[in-house]
Amino acid sequence: MNLNTDTTDYRCGFVAIVGRPNVGKSTLMNHLIGQKISITSKKAQTTRHKVTGIYTDNTAQLVFVDTPGYQTYHRNALNDRLNLNVTETVHGVDVVVFVIEALRFTDADRAVLEQMPKNVPVVFVVNKLDKAKDREVLAEFIANAEKEYDFAATEVVSAKHGLRITQLIELLKPMLPHSEPMYPEDMVTDKSSRFLAMEIVREKLFRYLGEELPYAMNVEVEQFEEDAETGMYSVYIAVLVDRDNQKAIVIGKGGERLKKISTEARMDMEKLFDTKVFLKVWVKVKSGWADDIRFLNELGM
Ligand SMILES: Nc1nc2c(ncn2[C@@H]2O[C@H](COP(=O)(O)OP(=O)(O)OP(=O)(O)O)[C@@H](O)[C@H]2O)c(=O)[nH]1
C-alpha cells in the first residue's frame, strides 16, 4: 500500500470496542482488522487483556482497543480489575463502539452504557444481524434501543459473517481527528508475539474445555525464544489452575485433551508467525490465585 499521508485530510485515532460479554466484540475486531488476534469463544468473559488492533488504509488509521466483557457477578480481585480496565479504556479514546446483540437489550448492556464518558461519541453497533430475519422487527428494536442513549450514529453488522464491516469503518473515519498515522502501515497489533502465543493457547483452552472450564485459570509464557539461525520459535507455556482435579480435566484421559490443545495452538502460531514453532504446554496448580492481587500484577494484568 502506498500511503498518501502528507495531506492534512488523513485521520487517525483510537476506537474502543465495548459491550457485555458474548455480544461479539472479539469477532468484530478480528474482522475489522482482517486478522485473528483477539480470541473468541462461545463462553463469556474470554477477553482478559486489552488487545490493540490496527486498521490502516489510504485515508485513515483506526487503532482499536478491545476491552474485557463487563461482568457484574462473581466479584473477586480479577473481576474488579476487569471492570477497572473497561472504564480506563473508554477514557482517552476518540470514539467508542458500543456493541449489542440484535433483538436483545439487557440490563447488562445498560450497565456498560452507564460507564460511557460524556464527552466521547458513542457509535451504536447492532451485531448478529443474521439472527434478525424480520427487518421490521429489527427496525423497531433499533428505534427503541436508540432511546437509551444519545448515540452519535447507528450501524448494523454481522461480525461472524463479515457483513457491513466496511460501512462501519467508513462511519467511524470522520469521527477521528486529523492526524498522521501513529503506527507503521503494515502493523496490525502492538502486542508482542509472546502475548499472542498466550492468547492462542487461551483460545484453545476455552474451545476444548467447554463447560468444564473453571474461570479461575490463567496462562503464563515461561519461555519464548527465536533461533537466530533457523528463525524457529520455542515456546513454553504454563496453564495455571486452582486444584488438582482441574489439572486432570485440562490434561484429559491419557493426555489427549492437552495434546489436542497444544497441536492446534502450535499450528495457529506457525500460521501467525510464519515460521516453525516448538510448543510445550503444561499444567500447574496454584491455589487461590484469583484473589491474589500481587499475583495478578506479576501476570501483567
Ligand atoms: N450468529 C452470530 N454469531 C456471532 C456473530 N458475531 C459473533 N458471534 C458469536 O458470538 C460468540 C461470542 O463472540 P465473541 O467475539 O467471543 O464475543 P465477545 O463480546 O468478545 O465476548 P467476551 O470476550 O466474553 O467479552 C461467538 O460464538 C461468536 O461466534 C454474528 O454476527 N452472528
Describe this structure in words.
This protein is an alpha/beta fold. It has 2 domains: 11-175, P-loop containing nucleotide triphosphate hydrolases (Rossmann fold, 3-Layer(aba) Sandwich); 193-298, 2-Layer Sandwich (GMP Synthetase, Chain A, domain 3), CATH 3.30.300.20. It is 33% helix and 22% strand. The protein contains 9 helices and 9 strands. It has helices spanning 25-33, 77-90, 107-113, 135-145, 165-172, 193-209, 244-251, 256-273, 293-298, and strands at residues 11-18, 51-56, 60-66, 95-101, 122-127, 153-156, 217-226, 233-241, 277-285. Strands 2-3-1-4-5-6 form a 6-stranded mixed β-sheet, with helices on both faces. Strands 7-8-9 form a 3-stranded mixed β-sheet. A hairpin with a 6-residue loop joins strand 7 and strand 8 (233-241). The chain is globular, with a radius of gyration of 20 Å. Residues 39-49 and 68-82 have low confidence and may be disordered.
